[in-house]
Write a structure and sequence with these properties.
By secondary structure, the protein is mostly helical. It has one domain. Helix content is about 50%, strand content about 0%. The protein contains four helices and no strands. The longest helix has 25 residues.
């Protein structure tokens, strides 16, 4: 059942959301070595925007662009582990093709 939040609840949610956001931009600034810090990341990059792969690469938010296999390979290499990817679904087909309403 839907219930409207009180002003106090709205304030708590807003404060919590802001805390998470500030933590995120602070970590991005530190981990990606942005000189301007969290304030620069917030003003220049963030503001809730979503970047596609090439844009993220151009803005220094990622090291490379690739797919699942590339990501797993890099993660395994960084962790000093080996992995085997077992695919149970052909991701080239749409999810809808696996579903039927018969």
């Amino acid at each position: 059942m839907h219930q409207t939040m009180s002003a106090e609840q709205q304030a708590r949610v807003a404060a919590w959301t802001d805390e998470i956001y500030q933590g995120f931009v602070t970590k991005v600034a530190a981990c990606r070595n942005f000189d301007g810090g969290a304030e620069w990341v917030d003003a220049q990059l963030a503001r809730g925007r979503v970047f596609h792969g090439a844009e993220a690469l151009d803005n220094g938010l990622v090291d490379s662009v690739g797919g699942l296999e590339e990501a797993l390979s890099i993660a395994a290499e960084l962790a000093g582990r080996h992995f085997a990817l077992r695919c149970f679904m052909d991701f080239r087909r749409s999810l809808a093709s696996y579903c039927s309403c018969h």
